[in-house]
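Q: Mind making up any chain with structure tokens?
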Amino acid sequence: MYLTPQHILLAGATGLTGEHLLDRLLNEPTVARVLAPSRRPLAEHPHLENPVGELQELLPQLNGPIDTAFCCLGTTLRQAGSQEAFRAVDHDLVVAFAQRARELGARHLLVVSALGADAKSAVFYNRVKGEMEQTLQAQDWPQLTLVRPSLLLGPRNEFRLGERLAAPLARWLPGKYHGIEATVLARALWRLALEEDDGVRVIESDCLRRLGR
């Protein structure tokens, strides 16, 4: 467990999971600095550094040192508008963020993937998530944690009809298919960040719910 002040890099701080994780990080006494680039300005905080703009353009400008990086990036096919645009965010941008985090000295990367991620899947969404995971593993991180939450539950800034309709059912599904509250996922991510376990870990949604209680 880390006892010295940590320097954190966070992508996706304005998303459902990212906003809860940011709040937790800024209230952790062991966190000295959170570097959180975002499209729109975040609320000011003494420990927050918030470059504003498109992440792809901001990446070269980010500065270290960084100890731990969290990636909560993600979109939907409907939001992206095409498979190519979806892949540009959920694969390409995630990979670029991870590479920059490594360049800044980060030794542990935690990434929000998805339930069913599989590079060989016939389902496009799951395949892209699986390919993203494979690419990150090829970066040879000292510590890489891939979390695969099921349907995320909680109020979003944007309306997602599919998730709104699926949420009631997700609350009753068993095991790893049971929906997970974004606040629970954020707590689980922080607890996982505190664990020193070299290599690659894949954490499924049922385990995330237990960790985040």
